[in-house]
Amino acid sequence: MATTTPPRGRRRAPSRMTRAAGRAAALQKPRVILALLILLALTSVLLLDGYLRAEVGGDERVRSNASSSKVPDKVIDGGPILSFRDGQAQTRSVPEKTIALTFDDGPNPTWTPQILKILEENDVPGTFFVVGSMVSRYPDIVDDLVDQGNEIGIHTFTHVDLSYQSDTRIEREMAQTQLALAGAAGITTTLFRAPYSSQTDAIDNYSWPVYKKLGAQGYTSVFVDTDSDDWKRPGVSKIIKWATPSKNEGASVLFHDAGGERSQTVAALGTYIERMKAKGYTFTTISGAIQQADAEEQQADAGAQPGGQAPGGPRGQGAAGAGGDGLQAAHRTATGTTLYEGKALVAAVAVAEWTVPGLAVGLAVVGVAVMGRFGMMLVLARRHHRRRNRRRFSWGPPVTRPVSVIVPAYNEKECIANTLKSLARSTHPIEIIVVDDGSTDGTKEIAEALGMPNVRVIRQENAGKPAALNNGVRNASHDIVVMMDGDTVFEADTVRHLVQPFADPGVGAVAGNAKVGNRNTVIGAWQHIEYVMGFNLDRRMYDLLRCMPTIPGAIGAFRREAVLAVGGMSEDTLAEDTDITIALHREGWRVVYQEHAKAWTEAPGSLKQLWSQRYRWSYGTMQALWKHRGSLTDRGPSGRFGRVGMPLVVVFQIVTPVFAPLIDVFTLYSMIFIDLRASLLAWLAVLCVQLVCAAYAFRLDREKYRYLLMMPLQQLAYRQMMYLVLIHSCVTALTGGRLRWQKLKRTGEVGTPAGAG
């Protein structure tokens, strides 16, 4: 057993690494926070958008046939305009031969502008009882509505029956609608109409206290005398007939500018206005009607002569008269906190309105890509398996010459003995080169104490895994080198299977089949599923496409001349295995996958260690892809990775996984706000597809299916963590961060391959 004397000063390396790791960890914390803030912001946008459609936990029931014994008769039998003065209910009617056109449920981007155009062409004002959530989504329409001289009233924020709601919910419904109006048009309003309560006979014992409380706050509740029932879509003629007051009575008339398909309303409105004008009717707003009613009452009390002038102007004024004066009574200019909070609400909703549809389109594309990937993996993996396991398949003459196995080791005292003992059982002739990378835990001494004749221990100052591998390659005696991790265990036939593809002179590297040895824990089982389904199924696909992106560090074999030709293992990235694999492709070498060459590795045993490992993998892969971005323009056979492999890796290992957590967030959003059953069925369908892929992967690798029982839980917990790791890596890359190698804690629990199975 040969030993290289370690250079002086090696004991100082661990302390330098410790300090560097501490600095790196300190730098990463803000990036973790930034990644979480991005996800939180997106979740908030979805929640806001969902709230605009239907508040979580909102009661969507509509009360009917309730007793009205506590409601004063003068309210039920009185006019459609209800206000309170000194706690006493007061009702008003619209004056004779006067119509107050009211519209509910808007604004709507399709129908409201058409209705506004008709009102403007006929010089008629309207009073629009708007839903706050719709105001937030379409603020420009509300601004146009007010500028045109129309009046605004509140129709709650989410269109709920207030008789079922708590006082807090009612306050929120009103306040949020006022904020929306302030942000959209710079106003607040004192007019209110409750959903599902168009006429005064709808007031019952449950809703009456609501009207009293709102009245005490200065709100005027508005009902209708005449309902067009346009929401039933009975036809233009019936809408006009039902909206026409009997005799010469004045009326508060109800139409709708939203809440459904309103083409019949639009078609009927112009004709209705012309007919009413022909009958001598004038049009005003609700506030205009209140002023006219108050003026007539004052005239009656003062004994005024007929034809006298009322403070609000003469009867019969149009939009420029009573309606314009009335606006001053209902509208208030929003100022101070209300104005700024309203603008903030409208701005936030605008972000949501742009984000959610864009996200939906993006996620549809991602979903198609994910399902396409599953389909492609299944087809190509099956073809790969059948091709490589045919009786007549051969790489060429059997490779029987000795090879060099390089084991880089840094503080591997728990694992190094098991690793070397597994290599000692190899059925293929090998030399073993252990490169001790400045270990401080006695790794070198343990390796030497085993007394294996074909083992050389080379000691170097701590310089990192790439340097240790390069040192091993330089000292290798044979033209084929096998690289493995110091915590990995080989089966007896692993090396023999691994080197057989080198019978083809065009093969420069071979990827082995890495398996999780410590799979007896939940985290281990999750990683086992990931290794079998994700890594190995992927490698079959990439092998068949001749664009393998990574030779795993746990088990890989290389032609020594090929490694030296590309400059050895590079320290430019944290994914030296991906880096050299791409470099070999660009040099024209073929990289293949050997499924029968199995290695059992110790996967991280805690979530913290798992995060550290996958963070390094993800970030290192991005570094390697960026380093070799020039492969996109490579020509000839050496450019195949750039033409095929690079796009696949970017799409399937970076872009798709980055957006994948959004699919889950959007699915949850759909379950809460859209359709629980349909969303749940869609999620289960995707899970079934994944289970099919996983089951097929387990079949190809001859693994036990019982581990698939952990897959649903893996999708809910483990997968989300992997997504967050990738997002964290992307944030680090985009902010120009640097990440250092982090040593994982080992337990040595992966002993013999048999025990690992």
How does this model look, in words?
With 757 residues, this protein is of the alpha/beta class. It has an 8-stranded mixed sheet with strand order 15-14-13-16-19-18-20-17, with helices on both faces. Strands 3, 4, 5, 9, 10 and 11 form a 6-stranded parallel sheet that branches. Strand 9 (226-227), helix 8 (236-243) and strand 10 form a beta-alpha-beta unit.
Query: What proportion of the residues form beta strands (DSSP E)?
Result: 5-15%
Q: Helical percent range?
A: 40-55%
CA distance, first residue to last residue: 32 Å
Number of helices: 24
Mean pLDDT: 84
Strand order of the largest sheet: 15-14-13-16-19-18-20-17
Radius of gyration, in Å, reads: 38 Å
Characterize the largest beta sheet: strand count, sense, and whether it forms a barrel: 8 strands, mixed
Give the low-confidence spans: 1-27, 307-327
Structural class assignment? alpha/beta
The count of strands amounts to 20
- Principal-axes geometry comes out as elongated
Distinctive features:
757 residues; alpha/beta; 6-stranded parallel β-sheet; 24 helices; 51% helix; elongated
